[in-house]
Specification:
mainly alpha; two-stranded antiparallel sheet
């Protein structure tokens, strides 16, 4: 395997303590006249092969995100775009999309990402009724319109004092949402919640 030396950008050319790829610990930096370590920046050895990086030599820049298990960035971006469209009723902005893509690449589950949208200020500021929210949840998590009995049940749960978490739990752990997640190559995850 080849290893890449990755470090954060900064004004100093010195690196802070790191674990060498051989396992040894090393401290680089420059000392001030008082003896304290100054002018350092975080750095680490990365196994390029484990990240699916090919090629030799030093990269001009570190990859922005590691490879995700069973998923590629295009699939994850499409999944995030879907959440923006169905929950917020708009296209994803580039910064927002990249934020959530990075969260998924970093290991956040799809259901936890969806919760980020559900509890966002933007969705809260829409002042949706319980029924309006449940209808959106049917589209996001089940990819269908609600049936009358189903919408009555879920709206009733919310009217008994449950928050949006009951919907995320009930819909987010469904076989339908599992299938949606599988189609985008993202891990569904679980969202524990106890109904009132």
């Amino acid at each position: 395997n080849s290893y890449w030396w990755l470090r954060t950008p900064g004004m100093f050319s010195y690196d802070t303590c790191y674990v060498n790829y051989t396992g040894s610990i090393r401290l680089d930096g420059v000392e001030s006249p008082t003896g304290s370590l100054i002018g350092v920046r975080p750095c680490v050895w990365v196994n390029a092969g484990a990240l699916g990086i090919t090629g030799t030599g030093s990269p001009s820049a570190a990859p922005s995100t590691p490879a995700a298990t069973g998923a590629n960035v295009e699939q994850i971006s499409a999944f995030v775009d879907r959440l923006y469209a169905e929950f917020l009723g708009r296209s994803a902005d580039d910064a927002g999309r990249q934020y959530w893509v990075n969260k998924i690449l970093g290991g956040m589950s799809a259901v936890d990402v969806s919760a980020g949208f559900v509890f966002s200020n933007e969705l809260r500021d829409m002042h949706l009724t319980n029924e309006e929210f449940v209808r959106r949840a049917y589209t996001v998590y089940l990819n269908r319109e609600p049936d009358p009995a189903g919408i009555a049940y879920w709206v009733g749960l919310m009217e008994r004092g449950n928050d949006y978490g009951c919907i995320i739990h009930g819909f987010g752990e469904s076989s339908e949402f599992t299938g949606i997640c599988n189609s985008y190559g993202v891990t569904r995850g679980d969202y524990p919640y106890t109904n009132k």
